[in-house]
Design the sequence.
């Protein structure tokens, strides 16, 4: 049941613990792992997870599988800052994971690396024990006022899961953000959905997080909406939070703030606000910053920490999505290395290198359609990597 809650000071009310809750159902089934507080100034996910665990433990509904809640940046949550030394949601790179994977490694250089070490081993322990499929959700909020939305890496399996929520879906954020925890989870092959519940300090963000967690438990089959009080209320609540409905958008552009840049977003922009080409969006100490193309502004930055200034997104049509599903399942991508200007990458698995001087037209669009993510852009060449586990999950041991 959703009750109105003020944002409490989570560090003062109780000692903040890494594992916010666990629940094992009376029948086998899927595993849901929920991350809250990946950014320390976004406590709503942690508060909502605690409330949902309290309710599940007190009502004990019929439950298939297991449910785990993990609090992420404990130090930054106590300090109420996005992070202490480095952004915990940008350090899940292969090199860092290699460092924290050794349980005996005591040589961790900064506070977020220690948080990452604990989260990594908590997740690995859950994966090792799991008998059913694994689903991950990552609960966030935004600095600007925003209606809630979902963000996923564009695999067909993630799409199918994301389309069960009555919310707008953003594809392709991962091409612009290296080292997020969901990039890592996707690489392991598990279904994962990021949720942005609204503005950091809005009480409604906690209610949206709660509704999202319950809806996820229903969608993946842990509980039936008829087995919990007001089960139908949660998806209905989510549907009411958005004017965009179940539309899918793709990231077209990201403005990255450079070191030393004094970036200021022009006031009053909100997520999904339409912008014209060449509209003045922001400025720095040297110049004005304009929209390079028409679309909708997304995640405008109104806080001091972070280097993503804003994104521009565009809607993807349903027919485009359906064509892409058919093409991906038909493995059309296998002909790509035989086309002019495209060759297999020498060192990377599942990767193709494209020479933009030869292959000029709709290159990014076609590679997206076929399930590739854009990786590196250098000297007229783009490297695209095919997403593994696009429509088939990993084998469980
Ligand atoms: Zn966040």
Sequence:
């Amino acid at each position: 049941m959703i009750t109105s809650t003020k944002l409490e000071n989570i560090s003062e009310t109780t000692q903040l613990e890494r594992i916010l809750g666990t629940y094992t159902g009376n029948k086998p089934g899927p595993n849901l792992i929920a991350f809250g507080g990946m950014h320390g100034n976004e406590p709503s996910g942690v508060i909502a997870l605690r409330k949902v665990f309290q309710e599940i433990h007190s009502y004990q509904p019929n439950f298939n599988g297991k449910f785990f809640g993990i609090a992420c940046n404990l130090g930054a949550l106590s300090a109420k800052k996005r992070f202490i030394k480095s952004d915990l949601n940008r350090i899940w790179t292969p090199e860092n994971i290699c460092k924290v994977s050794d349980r005996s490694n005591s040589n961790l250089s900064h506070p977020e690396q220690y948080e990452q070490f604990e989260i990594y081993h908590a997740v690995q322990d859950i994966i090792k024990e799991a008998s059913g499929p694994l689903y991950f959700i990552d609960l966030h909020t935004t600095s600007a006022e925003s209606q809630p939305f979902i963000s996923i890496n564009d695999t067909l399996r993630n799409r199918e899961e994301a389309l069960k929520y009555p919310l707008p879906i953003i594809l392709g954020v991962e091409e612009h953000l290296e080292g997020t925890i969901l990039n890592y989870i996707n690489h392991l092959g598990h279904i994962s959905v990021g949720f942005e519940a609204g503005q950091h300090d809005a009480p409604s963000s906690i209610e949206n997080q709660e509704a999202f967690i319950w809806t996820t438990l229903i969608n993946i089959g842990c509980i039936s909406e008829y087995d919990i009080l007001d089960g139908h209320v949660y998806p209905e609540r989510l549907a009411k939070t958005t004017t965009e409905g179940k539309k899918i958008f793709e990231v077209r552009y990201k403005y990255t703030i450079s070191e030393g840049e004094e970036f200021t977003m022009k006031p009053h922009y909100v997520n999904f606000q339409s912008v014209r080409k060449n509209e003045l969006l922001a400025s720095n100490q040297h110049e004005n910053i304009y929209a390079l193309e028409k679309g909708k502004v997304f995640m405008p930055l109104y806080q001091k920490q972070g280097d993503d200034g804003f994104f521009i997104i565009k809607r993807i049509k349903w027919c485009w999505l359906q064509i892409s599903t058919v093409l991906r399942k038909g493995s059309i991508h296998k002909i790509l290395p035989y086309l002019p200007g495209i060759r297999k990458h020498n060192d990377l698995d599942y990767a193709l290198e494209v020479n933009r001087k030869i292959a000029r037209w709709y290159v990014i669009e076609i590679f997206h359609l076929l399930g590739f993510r854009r990786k590196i852009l250098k000297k007229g060449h783009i490297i695209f990597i095919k997403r593994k586990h696009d429509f088939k999950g990993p084998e469980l041991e």
